[in-house]
Design the sequence.
């Protein structure tokens, strides 16, 4: 197992280089650029000033030279400096946004698994019951509702009309004057709506995956054999059936790793949350090449890491895979 993990980690290096090369080329092929984004609306900007800016940022060099310089910096884990007016290091900007996005996505993922797995298992075991029909309707309704529309409805109901929860930001204006418990409560109130919104779509999909997997597993012969031996129904369902039904869910969990730091542009923009999704959106709109490449590289690495974690989880959950 350790040799397999080490081999997979070594294979991520050429994969990361290939992904970064494709991302770099696609980014430069897109219309517009960082110089135009900062000078097109400035009537005092001249051709000479644009040329100086290109030389300052190194954009006057051929693409292979630019990519080689960027790859050399990446070898030392240096993302470079942002093209934004503040000129701050990209790593510093990402470091500021990661805790917020990580907190929201970890909480939403925990909510998804705590609710979706029991709902899926119960729907499969009680197939055709009232609970199964109601949960199916609720799940497909969740699939159909657009995220941005649901966010606006939640803001109007809980924030404007009822006044129970704040509708923007991650802290109140008087946050610094609050005590420790007050700060925790204030952050919690600000995170309720974003966490619920982030987990709503995943909750619908995960419960359906779990239900279909459980329906397939409980039809297997070894489940009938376990029941024929007189094992309690809870042992049959949760020890024998559910463990095998979780295998496809492990894949989804592994592929969810990039989302932990990737953020969501939609709900972070709607709720004015300074997370990674909003940072990436701002970088794309301003054509901030170092910032875009830094976030894309992190996302690519997390995607490869998620695939590896999914494979390892498969082996831990299924002895047949581990022995093979």
Sequence:
């Amino acid at each position: 197992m350790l040799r397999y993990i080490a081999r997979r980690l070594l294979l991520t290096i050429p994969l990361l280089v290939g992904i970064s090369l494709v991302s770099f080329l696609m980014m430069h092929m897109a219309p517009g650029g960082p110089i135009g984004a900062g000078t097109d609306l400035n009537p005092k900007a001249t051709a000479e000033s644009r040329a100086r800016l290109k030389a300052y940022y190194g954009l006057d060099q051929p693409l292979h030279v630019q990519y080689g310089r960027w790859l050399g910096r990446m070898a030392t884990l240096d993302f470079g400096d942002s093209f934004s007016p503040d000129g701050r290091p990209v790593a510093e900007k990402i470091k500021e946004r990661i805790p917020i996005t990580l907190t929201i996505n970890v909480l939403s993922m925990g909510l998804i698994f705590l609710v979706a797995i029991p709902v899926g298992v119960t729907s499969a075991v009680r197939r055709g019951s009232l609970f199964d029909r109601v949960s199916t309707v609720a799940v497909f309704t969740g699939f159909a509702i657009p995220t941005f529309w649901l966010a606006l409805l939640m803001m109007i109901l809980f924030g404007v009309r009822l006044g129970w929860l704040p509708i923007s930001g991650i802290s109140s204006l008087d946050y610094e004057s609050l005590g420790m418990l007050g700060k925790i409560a204030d952050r919690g109130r600000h995170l309720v709506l974003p966490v619920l919104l982030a987990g709503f779509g995943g909750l619908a999909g995960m419960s359906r995956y779990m239900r279909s997997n459980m329906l397939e597993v409980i039809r297997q012969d070894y489940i009938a054999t376990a029941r024929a031996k007189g094992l309690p129904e809870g042992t049959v369902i949760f020890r024998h059936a559910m463990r095998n039904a979780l295998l496809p869910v492990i894949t989804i969990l592994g592929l969810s790793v990039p989302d932990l730091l990737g953020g969501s542009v939609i709900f972070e923009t709607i709720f004015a949350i300074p997370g990674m999704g909003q940072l990436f959106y701002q970088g794309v709109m301003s054509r901030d090449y170092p910032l875009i490449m830094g976030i894309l590289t992190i996302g690519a690495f997390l995607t490869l890491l998620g695939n590896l974690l999914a494979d390892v989880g498969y082996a831990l959950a299924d002895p047949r895979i581990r022995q093979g």
About this structure: Residues 96-285 form a domain with the MetI-like fold fold (CATH 1.10.3720.10). The chain has 16 helices and no strands. The longest helix spans residues 180-217. The CA atoms of residues 263 and 277 lie 4 Å apart.
